[in-house]
Amino acid sequence: MKADLRPLAISLLATVFASVAWAQEFGRVHFQTSCTPEAQQKFERGLAMVHSFVYPDSVAAFSEAAAADPDGLGFEIMASYTGLAAVPARFALERQAWKEAAVLEPRGTQFPQAEAITYFARVMGSARGGDLAGADHEFEKLKNIRASLEAANQSYWAEQVEIQTLAAAGWIAQAKGQKDMALKFMRAAAELEDGSAKHIAMENRLYPMRELLADLLLEQEQSSAALSEYETSLESTPNRLRGLYGAAKAALASGQRQKATMYFRKLLELTKDADTERVEIQEAKAFLTPR
Q1: Is there a contact between 209 and 164 (Cβ–Cβ < 8 Å)?
Q2: How many CB atoms lie within 10 A of CB 188?
Q3: What separation, in Å, do the N-terminal and C-terminal C-alpha atoms of the chain show?
Q4: Rounded-to-5 percentages of helix, strand, coil across the chain
């Protein structure tokens, strides 16, 4: 007796059509994992959604991937833990959600470079949220992680955490009103990152340091210098929402409306499929709406 293959065929066709549908909507992203094909597809769907700023559905897609193959995503390796630390940290920092960043919970893993990601986010959240005592406290933990990596002869990772430490010191100085010191630390972080290679497992570049330098310059009302740094950062990290937004704001503040228009238009094109009306999107739309 022949087996009825129709249910299997229908299932396969449904999978194909679903794959085509989300690929057309969000584009394709490929990042190979060790999981099953079913989990791989869900994982890549989540990544595509993240790149399209569709956040709630991306969380659901990642959860489905983990449920489909809980042992296949490689959580015994360092890159998995840096990734797990980076996702909530980046989600808070990119949205400038300082209170949220300040209370992110470290995972307590055996990988200090992964722990550093969370502590960096906590320092930034505390410093930019006005909690200087909290920022100083978290900053000490970040310095201790750097020292532990140096003592373990992990010079590459020690340098990566040093970049974070310099940036954190810059924003703590800014919060304390020490503007020159803030720029000194932040510029050092940007230059050190520019000269550092990116490791295949490196997920702790949560925020391009040159863009963060531009943020600092803009906060200090040095708009022309900020615009220059944003544009330099966008060359190596193109199509970043915060980079485009910062460049538009800096151009506007320095009287360059044509450039501001260009960057706001790029921002809206980038976020045309976004599922949320972020402040940056609202501001871009308001600027570009004819009066």
Answers
A1: no
A2: 18
A3: 74
A4: 70, 0, 30
pLDDT by residue (tens digit) across 5-33?
A: 444 343 333 333 334 344 445 556 666 66
Residue type, 267: L
Any idea where the domains of the chain sit in the sequence?
6-68, 80-288
Query: pTM for the complete prediction?
Result: 0.78
Domain 80-288, CATH homologous superfamily name and number? Tetratricopeptide repeat domain (1.25.40.10)
**Structure tokens given for 217:** 């310059």
- Residue 196 banded pLDDT, cuts 50, 70, 90: confident
Distance (Å, whole) CA 234 – CA 246: 10
Q: Do the Cβ atoms of 166 and 189 come closer than 8 Å?
A: yes
Q: What is the pLDDT of residues 44-77, one digit of tens each?
A: 777 676 656 665 676 677 677 767 766 655 555 6
